[in-house]
Amino acid sequence: MYIPPPFNETDLSRIVSLVQENPFGMLITAPDGAPTVSHLPLLLEESANGELTLWGHMARANPQWKHLSPSQNVLVVFRGPHAYISPAWYASPGVPTWNYAVVHLHGTPRVINDEVELADLVHRLTHRFESPRPTPWKPAMTVEYRHNLPAMIVGFEIKIRHMEAKFKLGQNRSMEDQRRVAAELAGSTDATEVALAKLMQLPEPTGE
What we know:
The chain is an alpha+beta fold. It has 5 helices and 7 strands; from the N terminus they run H-E-E-E-E-E-E-H-H-E-H-H.
């Protein structure tokens, strides 16, 4: 990914937060030079020593799972908030652009076929997305259900070996321009534009 220095995000906490807040990722494999992409909800976990692991599953009918082996590197892309930026918002001359935040995670995968591991994975993923709801749904993990899981889905974990994060938030513009853009985005009725404004995290003006 092309990342000019002003847009290179290296703060691990911001990278992890973006992925966890935008967990619908693109899993990309290319074992024979032809890219294959699956769009999947994924669970990112961070260990005590800062190591990152992605967890997910796909339908067994999806042939991409056969690409997943420790000998093959995979790429997973997560996209955060993004929006068109009008030059009318700047105090100084400018051109139209698009601001956004994206994370690329590279790693080595391991396929999960064991029914006990699969049941645990389904439980963790379900808990992640159901827990914010007033009345969370829980899967009925009966013996029969667990026994049938390997015929329906293939689980996987991906140990992250390398990451790239591009937070293109106008850092190449003056602070005044950045504040004007953030104010325009924050005042929008579009939730994505408001989220982009929050991501900019600008320092308070000093009054000088």
